[in-house]
Write a structure and sequence with these properties.
By secondary structure, the chain is an alpha/beta fold. Helix content is 45%, strand content 11%.
Length: 291
């Protein structure tokens, strides 16, 4: 299903993409039709990782604050993109926030309150693996939240996000979408693979059952919260490998970073032993070399 967002400057966005493509040598010609092979992906990811490190150094130097929201269908591949995005950078700069279900105390708070506690300070990029949009998605569909509160959230959310952006935070929002057949295939894979069974929850099974309820909730959420200052970007994620490359490349195109100059690093020589000898009478508990 092709989704369209409103309120964003598509021409400016395309120019930004072209500029970044030329700058990072990630040409459109490098992308081949069909699925990417593992080697293709590894080669592209290596280039993107180098750029993400530049972003990290720039964010720290400039004291920037960035929030990246990852939302979407269950089993759409959000976790894989986040893992790929953060694999080669510092978790102190690229902080991942994946909140559990709210406690009884948190349920009594202002809804946005527990998310605000995780917003970035200067020099940080905060990545929300699910976010305050739970209220317009799973909470709404599963009946955890009364409909009047959902409507109130949809009215207040753009105002809250405007305040965040006006305070100097760059807010980037991604929605990951998959087809019905692909979602079914991924759920079945989780059921049959002991390495993935932990990924399958009762909520996932309900998400598969309530496909159209989630579709209606998604449509209304995107319509109400897609704004010029905090637009939604939709990632078609049936092809996981391509989705990862497309999303990270697009994220880089939205951040106006520059390469930070630094002195050439030279590895110092080791100090002299000055009589130090490894102790021979200390018996350590060694890990067996089983491999």
């Amino acid at each position: 299903m092709q989704l369209h967002t409103r309120g964003s400057d598509h021409a400016a966005h395309q120019r930004a993409l072209q500029h970044k493509a030329a700058r990072h040598s990630l040409q459109r010609g490098d992308k081949k039709p069909g699925k990417q092979t593992r080697k293709d992906v590894e080669r592209q990811v290596e280039k993107l990782d180098a750029e993400l490190v530049k972003v990290q150094l720039w964010v720290k130097q400039e004291g920037r604050r960035i929030i990246v929201v990852f939302e979407g269908r269950d089993a759409a591949g959000k976790g894989g993109v986040i893992k790929c995005l953060t694999e080669r950078v510092s978790p102190r700069v690229f902080r991942v926030v994946a909140l559990p279900a709210p406690t009884e105390r948190e349920k009594s708070q202002l809804f946005i309150q527990r998310y605000l506690a995780h917003f970035p300070a200067a020099g940080e990029i905060c990545i929300f693996d699910r976010s305050w949009y739970n209220r317009a998605g799973v909470e709404r569909v599963m009946g955890f939240c009364p409909e009047p509160e959902v409507q109130r959230f949809l009215q207040i959310c753009p105002v809250f996000e405007r305040v965040a952006v006006q305070s100097g935070i760059q807010l980037i929002k991604y929605w990951f979408d998959v087809s019905q057949d692909e979602q079914t295939r991924r759920f079945e894979s989780r059921i049959n693979d002991p390495r993935k069974i932990w990924k399958l929850s009762p909520m996932d099974l309900e998400a598969h059952h309530r496909w159209y309820d989630f579709s209606r909730a998604r449509d209304e959420m995107l319509l109400a919260t897609d704004t010029p200052y905090a637009p939604w970007y939709v990632v078609q994620a049936d092809d996981k490998r391509r989705a990862r490359l497309n999303c990270i490349s697009h994220l880089l195109s939205l951040i106006p970073y520059e390469e930070v100059e630094h002195e050439k690093i030279k590895l110092p020589k080791r100090q002299k032993a000055k009589g130090y000898v490894e102790p021979s009478d200390r018996q350590y508990k060694m890990v067996p070399e089983a491999f």
